[in-house]
Write a structure and sequence with these properties.
single chain, 91 residues, mainly alpha, 53% helix
């Protein structure tokens, strides 16, 4: 699968909105805001669902390095992880 960053982010946002049960648009200014908390209204359980859905969508397996230091708690952080995993062909 060869997607550019914009396509990856669109898929991430789609999954986040599915988990949040929302159709609210997410602006580019929000891409570095933590998903867990008041802004997005998500909790850790929601983030686990996002994690699992993204693994299925992108056919990747995430590693500890993807989630440590809150790397998986923003749209840009998730996109970085997916780009690394798909560039390395890690499945």
């Amino acid at each position: 699968m060869s997607l550019d960053r914009g396509q990856i982010i669109d898929k991430i946002i789609g999954i986040i909105n599915e988990v949040r049960h929302s159709s609210e648009s997410i602006s580019e200014n929000d891409y570095d805001i933590p998903l867990i908390g008041d802004h997005f209204g998500m909790d850790y359980q929601d983030l686990v669902f996002v994690f699992l859905e993204l693994m299925e969508e992108f056919k990747v397996k995430f590693a500890l390095e993807d989630v440590k230091d809150y790397g998986f708690n923003s749209i840009n952080g998730i996109a970085d992880s997916i780009e690394r995993r798909t560039a390395n062909h890690t499945t």
